[in-house]
Q: What sequence folds into this?
């Protein structure tokens, strides 16, 4: 078994017989949404600190998590997100390990129904 971090694009493409489609859109076009004044103010301070700290953990806590929190708020809490969850999808294929973030269409926040 190998963890998610040990996968490369080349390995995933080969192991799962995937075809890359370049130049297309992954998501449909959407209108941009301005961040709330609270998020904008927070990010104005936190981005430089996260960069200076230099760790993935700092970037997750000071940049990504506040943005996901705002997305959840904009969507009236109809989604949930989880940080640092063990997510063993298919151990025999090596799809095991801890994900930085998981986003769920379930509003249930106390536990991830996918785990």
A:
């Amino acid at each position: 078994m190998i963890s998610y971090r040990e996968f490369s694009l080349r390995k995933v493409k080969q192991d799962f017989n995937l075809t890359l489609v370049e130049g297309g859109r992954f998501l449909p076009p959407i209108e941009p949404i301005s961040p709330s004044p609270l998020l904008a103010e927070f990010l104005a301070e936190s981005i430089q600190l996260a960069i200076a700290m230099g760790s993935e953990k700092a970037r997750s806590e000071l940049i990504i998590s506040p943005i996901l929190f705002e997305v959840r708020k904009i969507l009236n809490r109809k989604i949930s997100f989880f940080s640092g969850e063990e997510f063993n999808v298919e151990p025999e294929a090596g799809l095991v390990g801890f994900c930085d973030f998981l986003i769920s269409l379930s509003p249930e926040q106390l536990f991830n129904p996918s785990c």
Remarks:
- Residues 56-74 form the longest helix (19 residues).
- The mean pLDDT is 86.
- The chain is about 35% helix and 5% strand.
